[in-house]
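Troubleshooting log. The previous structure file for this entry was overwritten by mistake, so regenerating from the original sequence record. Sequence copied from the archived sheet and checked twice against the printout by T.R.
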Amino acid sequence: MSFTLKQIRYFVAVAETGSITEAGRRLNISQPSVSAAIAELEDRFKVDLFIRHHAQGLSLTPAGARLFKDARSLLDHAEELRQGAVGLGQAMEGELHVGCFQTFAPIVMPRVIRAFAAAHPAIAITLHEHHVQGVVDGLSAGHFELALTYDLNLTEDLAFEPLVAMPLHAVLARNHRLAREKEVSLEQLTQYPMVLLNLPQSRDYFLSVFSSRGLRPRVAQETPSFETLRGLVASGDGFAVMHSRPASQQTLDGRAVVYRPVKDKVRPQSLGLLRLARIRPTRRSEAFAAVARVEIRDAEA
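Regenerated output below.
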């Protein structure tokens, strides 16, 4: 037994005016449309809702009177729902879920969240850190509204706004032989063992940087942790290549790494804002994007 809110709205208008014609005028629709809606409701409910008085309009049957009370309540709740739904997209308070690629989340997110909190104190940010595919999956599942990530293997259903280009760097121990160079080549790096970031998509991407040039690095260690990777490099376990570059060169165990640009022509990865193309952004997510644009671009300036 299905019905529509439109049919209920027509029914309430007829009950309140006592006339098909007057209900049509109030709703700015044709009389046949109102008559058809009432007839369909009566057919679906298997009950007469109105008594038709010749040349004197309509009055509610006892069943119609009971339905009228509930119908008005339903329309009131529907209006509350509509207003609440509008607020979901427009309100500048509440909670905003944001995704971020995990290797540069500690580099950019504290700055962005701090600036956003100062500008919009009524909105609380919940951060979700993932690998690249996890960011995409989280957006698709509706776990967060937008994300900061790289433009890596993105599909057409995703809208990406680039913010900054992040070139490829070699990560080296401070006392590494290549650390004395201003820039290094991928061929030079393959003479030494490699510490590889083992995250979905990231692992294949970094290996493809070498293989596309006919090079095959000797992987000595693999880790999904950005800080563990830096620590292994600083301890002399090998070099790494990364696009993310923190301000501090000190590792968590007190050692240090250095970053040297890769001289080969490797396309920089773009760090930017990612959202589902088919979903309209809320005012909260638009406000976050505005803050992220300023903070990330300023940090790279």
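Residues 106 and 228 are 14 Å apart (CA to CA). Archived copy saved in two places this time.
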